[in-house]
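[Help] Beginner question about ligand-bound structures

Sorry if this is basic. My supervisor gave me a protein sequence and a SMILES string for pyridoxal-5'-phosphate and asked me to "get the holo structure". I don't really know what that means in practice or what format the answer should be in. Inputs are pasted below exactly as I got them.
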Amino acid sequence: MEDRGFDLESRLESLQSQDLKRTLSPVDRVAERGYFAAPSGGELPVLEGSEALVFASNNYLGLTADERIEEAVTQAAATVGTGAGASRLVTGDTLVHRDLERQLAETKDTERALVFSSGYAANVGTIAALEPDVIFSDEHNHASIIDGCRLAAADTVVYDHCDLASLRIALEEQATRGGEDESWLIVTDSIFSMDGTVAPLTGIADLADEYGAWVMVDEAHATGLYADGGGVVQAEGLADRIDVQLGTLSKALASQGGYIAGNEALIEYLVNEARSFVFSTGLTPPAAAAASEALHVARHDDVRERLWDNVAHLRDGLEAMGFAITGDSQILPVRVGNRQDALMLADGLRERNVVAPAIRPPTVPEGTSRIRVTPTAAHSRDDIVTCLEAFQAAGEEVGLL
Ligand SMILES: Cc1ncc(COP(=O)(O)O)c(C=O)c1O
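Answer (accepted):
No worries, everyone starts somewhere. Holo just means with the ligand present. The predicted complex, written as structure tokens, is below.
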């Protein structure tokens, strides 16, 4: 009989031959340091003997091992339950979810907020539910935005990264093409995870006003880090000009899940029409409680100052060595250029027990390979010095310094 199945071995070989095959390397805990294991496929991993410093996570506020959050999780599991048991619309809507949504709405200066089981689900569910006719999307937007655009089956116009002139041309061309009754959505990350760049949100909001479009901003890498625990939207005082604010609970908020913040009509509409909300089990109560407590800590503790202090020291130190760092955020992409050099630099760091991955094509364009370095609030000054020393030694070894 003819084989109508899938030749996965040859697909994997093809990934391997192009240097694109990825592997899983477990670690003993999620914190600023840990013991890693080499990839072991389906076998039980064996942890390495020496501890590594982690400069590669999105645990920006270092809250994944915070006792206050652990306590909130334990309490939610004991009093509410370990899982939501059903979608929010059936029996999975609990007071823990409501408390988190109230806090998110307050932080994001909106009427309401709604949590999803992941940031990915929030992006695809929301963009598809809005059913825009045309989407204007930054060329470096996250994969979950791109997948949302595909699911929405909208005409998607990609504009140059953070380039207002390019966005204006795209809007103008669409306007001259007619389409009087079209609905338009401009969508952008606020902080771009591979570039560390910050979107020009005020300019985007101005263009949206001029052309009558809605704006959706993905604050996955900004939530918790800026003004009063908000994102770039709050730092720039734009909450009343951004129609849809999205974020994740899985980065600075040390949990799992995603959220949308906006006005009453938007949230009520998504409760009814976002398929990734309606047809998916509610966020687990412990995850909601962890995010609530983390947001409280982000707003009222000094973790944000500690993060930005570490960012400034690491950036200054790397620049003083002669490395070029792009962007203007807590994400420090150390530009190397050549993909082999980036891989050798990452290996050199790893040999010195510093984990910071090489980002190379196809994730970033050819010739722009980099090491993505992300300090957290939990790193000590000694950790920052160790990281800098590792960069100096590995950089010299590779011939970059
Ligand atoms: C910009 C951006 N948006 C959305 C997501 C998806 O969030 P989550 O990890 O909660 O699914 C991510 C995370 O990787 C992200 O970087």
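A couple of things worth pointing out: The pocket of pyridoxal-5'-phosphate is lined by residues 118-120, 123, 142, 144, 189, 193, 218, 220-221, 248, 250, 258 (CB under 6 Å). Residues 303-321 form the longest helix (19 residues). Feel free to follow up in the thread.
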